[in-house]
């Protein structure tokens, strides 16, 4: 039928774009659904517009991103921007909303390339106006060139903090300081991975360049910070933290940007019933996939950071490998072509991932990030505190879904995206059970809020991908 595609890809970041280009070269009919108005994902958000601007921000792999977007545009894949996918059914039927209506697309195989989300960071005061994530601030910078008019305070750990700090400085912004929350012992733990990381020395050089840029700007950096708290009545007024010596410090601030690394976006795979497990090295849940990116659900693959954090270069390569696997499964290529195509991609992927163990060890978040104090709000939507979750766990409620029923945590508009990992971690801490035994919320469609009008629009025919 006109609405059927060989491969439906959800997400237009590095993995989704690279998969689409490779799949088209192997003869697959490809449809890519993207929630954003233009391809690039978070890492290359608005890349076409930014690179065309006089004052563009050229950090990271922007040139590589633009080349991939252009290759995708020329690939012949059907591109459907502005589509919010809210359900995928076996068979496969993909349901998405756009312009107040819902559409249905049929596909023989699915590739989820939904990427990562910032790790939620519940701490006292994190719901105050004036507190936001580094990733959110970067989106504003990339899409509309918004630069805070007052010096910002950045707290947390991870490479994104360094990248954003350099981007903000180049855009004329001011940084009051960086509160590095990585534990001191992380450095020693990371040293063992340094020799392996040299295989991808270019990434190390780039990271060192960001550090030099921050030092040259004279930005104060306080290391081994813990017990972060935002203070204020109606908005952020000050930030309190504890230093390595145990001293309490309070500084005035109007804007606090926080970041504790990124984790796989797992809601869509879990809603479809894909198997998953706890990854202790990255302290997060991730779907289980095979060497081709295929999940426990046949013909449903997951590529890029959505299957485990690896960065943009690795995500692109995983996307290509997943496309090769899908082409083989759909009978488009023979085993000889599969072997010849995949081998160099796997070699490049090993190099791209060479720095991953070092980064995971160096930026490993401290335990308090996963299991905050009792007074801290964990579920922002329903205003459920960590203490309420612990109280429920203490009387024998040891599963996230039972916690949801008793406390309403995870029932709000975000459907557990902001509280799910903290709830599971608190239950693990309280019960002593492993994170795999605790698990995550049981997720159900729709994955995003859908209006009755959007559902009513499903009486219309499927998407005509040949139009």
Quick take:
With 467 residues, the protein is of the alpha/beta class.
Average pLDDT metric: 92
Which band does the percent of strand residues land in? Answer: 15-25%
Number of E-type strands: 21
Largest sheet: 7 strands, mixed
Structural class: alpha/beta
- Could you tell me how far the N terminus lies from the C terminus, measured between alpha carbons in angstroms? 12 Å
Instruction: Tell me the radius of gyration.
Output: 22 Å
- What is the helical fraction, as a range of percent? 25-40%
**Poorly predicted tracts of residues:** none
Global morphology: globular
So how many helices?
Answer: 18
What does this structure look like?
- This protein is α/β, with parallel strands linked by helices.
- The chain has helices at 14-25, 47-52, 62-73, 134-144, 159-170, 185-191, 194-197, 201-216, 267-271, 312-329, 335-352, 356-362, 367-370, 386-394, 400-407, 420-431, 435-438, 452-456, and strands spanning 4-10, 30-33, 78-80, 84-89, 93-98, 101-112, 116-118, 131-133, 152-157, 175-180, 221-222, 226-231, 238-242, 248-252, 256-260, 262-264, 276-279, 284-287, 300-302, 377-379, 384-385.
- Helix 6 packs antiparallel against helix 12 (356-362) and helix 10 runs antiparallel to helix 11 (335-352).
- The protein is globular.
């Amino acid at each position: 039928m006109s609405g059927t595609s060989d491969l439906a890809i959800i997400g237009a970041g590095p993995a989704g774009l690279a998969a689409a280009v490779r799949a088209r070269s192997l003869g697959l009919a490809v449809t890519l659904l993207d929630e954003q108005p233009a391809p690039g994902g978070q890492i290359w958000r608005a890349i076409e517009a930014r690179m065309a601007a006089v004052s563009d921000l050229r950090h990271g792999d922007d040139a590589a991103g633009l080349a991939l977007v252009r290759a995708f545009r020329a690939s012949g894949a059907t591109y459907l921007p502005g589509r919010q996918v809210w359900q995928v059914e076996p068979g496969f039927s993909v349901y998405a909303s756009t312009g107040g209506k819902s559409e249905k697309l049929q596909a023989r195989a699915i590739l989820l390339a939904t990427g990562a989300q910032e790790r939620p960071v519940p701490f006292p005061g994190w719901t105050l106006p004036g507190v936001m994530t580094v990733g959110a601030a970067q989106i504003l910078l990339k899409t509309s060139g918004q630069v805070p008019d007052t010096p910002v305070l950045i707290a947390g750990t991870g490479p994104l903090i360094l990248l954003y700090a350099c981007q903000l400085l180049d855009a004329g912004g001011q940084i009051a300081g960086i509160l590095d929350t990585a534990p001191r012992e992380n450095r020693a733990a990371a040293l063992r991975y340094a020799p392996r990381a040299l295989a991808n020395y270019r990434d190390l050089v780039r990271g060192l360049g960001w550090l030099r840029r921050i030092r040259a700007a004279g930005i104060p950096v306080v290391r081994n910070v813990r017990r972060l708290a935002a203070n204020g009545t109606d908005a952020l007024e000050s930030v309190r933290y504890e230093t390595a010596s145990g001293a309490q410090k309070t500084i005035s601030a109007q804007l606090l940007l926080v970041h504790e690394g990124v984790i796989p976006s797992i809601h869509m795979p879990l809603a479809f019933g894909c198997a998953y497990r706890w990854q202790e090295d990255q302290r997060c849940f991730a779907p289980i996939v095979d060497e081709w990116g295929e999940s426990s659900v046949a013909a449903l693959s997951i590529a890029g950071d959505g299957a485990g954090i690896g960065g943009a270069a690795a995500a692109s390569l995983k996307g290509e490998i997943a496309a090769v696997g899908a082409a083989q499964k759909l009978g488009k290529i023979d085993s000889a072509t599969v072997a010849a195509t995949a081998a160099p991609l796997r070699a490049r992927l090993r190099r791209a991932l060479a720095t991953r163990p070092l980064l995971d060890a160096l930026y490993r978040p401290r335990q308090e990030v996963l299991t905050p104090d009792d007074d801290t709000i964990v579920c922002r939507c329903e205003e459920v505190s960590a203490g309420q979750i612990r109280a429920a766990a203490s009387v024998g409620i040891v599963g996230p879904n039972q916690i949801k029923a008793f406390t309403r945590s995870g029932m709000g508009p975000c459907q557990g995206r902001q509280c799910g990992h903290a709830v599971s971690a608190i239950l693990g801490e309280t019960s002593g059970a492993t994170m795999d035994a605790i698990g995550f919320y049981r997720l159900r469609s729709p994955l995003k809020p859908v209006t009755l009008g959007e559902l009513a629009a499903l009486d219309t025919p499927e998407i005509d991908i040949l139009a």
